[in-house]
Amino acid sequence: MSVNVEMLELADKVIGMLINNDKREGLYDHLHMDNWEWPTGVALYSMYKVYKKTNDKKYLDYLINWYDVQLAKPIPHKNVNTVCPALTMVCLYEETKNEKYVPYINMWADWVMNEMPRTQYGGMQHMTVLNRHYEQLWDDTLFMTVLFLLKAGKVFGREGYVEEAKYQFLFHIKYLQDRKTGLFYHGWTFDGRHNFAGAFWARGNSWFTSGAVEFLEIYGVDDAVSRFVKTSWVDQVKELIKYQGENGLFNTLVDIEETYYETSATAGIAYGILKGVRLGLIGEEYLEYGRKAAHAVISKIDENGMVHGVSYGTGMGKDLEHYKKIPIAPTAYGQGLTFLMLTELI
Description:
6hp_glycosidase-like_sf; two-stranded antiparallel ribbon; 346 residues; mainly alpha; PolySaccharide_Degr_Enz; Glycosyltransferase; Putative unsaturated rhamnogalacturonyl hydrolase; globular; Glyco_hydro_88; hydrolase
């Protein structure tokens, strides 16, 4: 397999901001890989993809060592976000067949299936370390938790996991995708039955743009569920590109031009479109939109590999002003999503 060396070097620089900053203190002390959290999980998953594309053992060695270190620590708080690193652990087991990962994979899958809080009708409640988010569905859950469950089900032949993952994708689409536009609302609550601010938040949309292509690839079955997820994804992409800025970026509220352009969302959307074209989910004519977005993200990477123009952590907003006021700062997930995007360019 041919490798784009220039993009690989850029990807190494981007992920290097996390790998090499484990001892950093001060303003960017959160930019590191020494924790079991979702930004790290996105970066780990991206690194595994780079390993599979390049067959360079240094990436595999890093992953093996990372899990050796983290699994020796106490089990982290279980919530929707801390499930994310378990996805790459399943990939690592699939690659190495090392049985030491199996008890941990089983532990996380058992929690998701039997203990993770559910909303009305059995949706995965977006429970975090600080808030149970009673009766709430968020876009993020699909990438952070459901992909792991699907992958574990496929690798270990656990049909119950696969069925639950399928249900969660369909369930989240039902309540989060706007039927008129195809865009995704940030969240939904059964406690009042509404979509909060009605915000088409860009990073939330990007979790579906990127997560749906992963779902379809991992699931690998052409049936009613995959067809439904695919058409939902196509609807979203066709609407998203209408709002892409001339500079290739997307506004933090997709449909509101006066909100600032946001890099991490653009990276996730670029990844989804580029991979979707490669998988044949959408026509080649959409490649230009993915490339335009990717080039815009690359323009936000400085000489050290830091990704700029990333909105800080964003909780559920009760009004649109909430999203407009979120500050911009380098973040671990900004690095991770950009790294993920670059895996489609390597």
